[in-house]
């Protein structure tokens, strides 16, 4: 069998991009080839002139927060609210645990949730009405859920009251916009030390990583109080692996905190040593208020010194010059002075001209 002939016609814009992407240098050739290349360049420039300008870059959205009650304009909200509330042309009956019925529309539910679409395709039809049952959820929570599918609206009091039910419903029926709203409400002041463990387990079951991270940080921040709650004791019996994971996270966080504190202390000591070395050089070279080299005129104690460590170092030098304890390790203050002098001698770049004692 012969292979079919495929005729591929490239758009002119793609051909132009190829022409501009390659820089071909011709070292040898006749004049006709050169003229042809010039003609091609002119045609490429002509095509490039006709290419439309690209669209502008998308602007950054400065308002990333969640709206309080609504995501849609008021007019659209009113239309969808009326359609849901009046049930005009409704062809779906949703049955709750208490036997109540919520009317809805097959097309709206199918577009809003792929899971509901699948359920509706498998549901029984009677008198052109489809019946589905959603158990385990109170009527008011389910009513708020179906209402959100229509208009993306909710009442704040109902949302705060049934936020856990709505989080589960939004996860089970893949309603991501409602799921984001529930996560935001839970993160914004809803968590307490009594319920954070329960919310953490629920967030992991509902695939809410940000909410899980917020709960985990709260546990590590107030571990002593949270570990004594009833929710922790229940979690310890029902899910010991999660308890082990939380304990390891707390230990790791404490280790990182100690490491950061250690680095802060090291930096603080380094800065103190730096200030002491600068003050020592200042006293021995320029002289300070009441202490300095013999060839310098001291300025007196009333003049303020710009070195913070100068006053303490002045007292240390006076003690060092008159201390009677000469045995090794006998005086802590003298030992500090010896350490400063040794450190300066190791760091000094001009020992021949330096006026600091023992700088050789």
UniProtKB/TrEMBL annotation:
Enzyme class: transferase
EC number: 2.3.1.48
Pathway membership, UniProt: Protein modification; protein ubiquitination
Ranges that cross the membrane: none
CDD domains for the chain: BACK
Short name of any one Pfam family annotated for the protein: zf-TAZ
Keywords assigned by UniProt, alphabetized: Acyltransferase, Metal-binding, Transferase, Ubl conjugation pathway, Zinc, Zinc-finger
Domain TAZ-type stretches: 264-360
GO MF: calmodulin binding; protein-lysine-acetyltransferase activity; zinc ion binding
Domain called BTB: residue spans: 90-158
InterPro entries, per the entry: BT1/2/3/4/5 (IPR044513), BTB/POZ_dom (IPR000210), SKP1/BTB/POZ_sf (IPR011333), TAZ_dom_sf (IPR035898), Znf_TAZ (IPR000197)
PROSITE patterns: BTB (PS50097), ZF_TAZ (PS50134)
One annotated GO biological process: response to salicylic acid
SUPFAM superfamilies linked to this entry: POZ domain (SSF54695), TAZ domain (SSF57933)
Lineage top rank: taxon: Eukaryota
Annotated protein name in UniProt: CREB binding protein/P300
Species assigned in the record: Handroanthus impetiginosus
């Amino acid at each position: 069998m012969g292979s079919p002939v495929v005729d591929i016609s490239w758009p002119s814009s793609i051909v132009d991009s190829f022409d501009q992407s390659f820089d071909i240098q011709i070292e040898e050739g006749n004049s006709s080839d050169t003229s042809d290349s010039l003609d091609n360049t002119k045609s490429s420039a002509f095509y490039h002139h006709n290419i439309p300008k690209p669209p502008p870059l998308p602007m950054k959205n400065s308002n990333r927060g969640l709206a309080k009650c609504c995501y849609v304009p008021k007019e659209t909200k009113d239309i969808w609210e009326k359609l849901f509330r009046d049930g005009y042309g409704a062809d779906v009956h949703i049955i709750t645990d208490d036997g109540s019925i919520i009317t809805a529309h097959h097309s709206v539910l199918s577009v809003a949730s792929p899971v509901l679409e699948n359920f509706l395709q498998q549901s029984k039809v009677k008198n052109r009405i489809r019946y589905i049952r959603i158990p385990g959820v109170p009527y008011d929570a389910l009513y708020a859920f179906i209402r959100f599918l229509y208009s993306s609206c909710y009442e704040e009091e109902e949302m705060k009251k049934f936020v856990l039910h709505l989080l589960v419903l939004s996860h089970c029926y893949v309603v991501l916009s409602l799921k984001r709203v529930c996560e935001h409400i839970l993160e914004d002041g809803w968590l307490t030390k009594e319920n954070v463990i329960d919310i953490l387990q629920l967030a992991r079951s509902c695939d809410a990583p940000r909410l899980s991270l917020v709960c985990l940080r709260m546990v590590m921040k107030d571990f002593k109080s949270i570990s004594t709650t009833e929710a922790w004791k229940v979690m310890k019996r029902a899910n010991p692996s999660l308890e082990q994971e939380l304990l390891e996270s707390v230990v790791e966080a404490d280790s990182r905190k100690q490491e950061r504190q250690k680095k802060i202390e090291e930096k603080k000591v380094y800065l103190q040593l730096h200030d002491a070395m600068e003050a020592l050089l200042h006293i021995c070279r320029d002289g300070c208020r009441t202490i300095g080299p013999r060839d310098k005129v001291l300025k007196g104690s009333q003049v303020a010194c710009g070195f913070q460590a100068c006053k303490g170092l002045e007292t240390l030098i006076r003690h060092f010059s008159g201390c009677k304890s000469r045995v090794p390790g006998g005086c802590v203050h003298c030992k500090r002075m010896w350490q400063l002098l040794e450190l300066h001698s190791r760091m000094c770049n001009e020992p021949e001209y330096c006026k600091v004692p023992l700088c050789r």
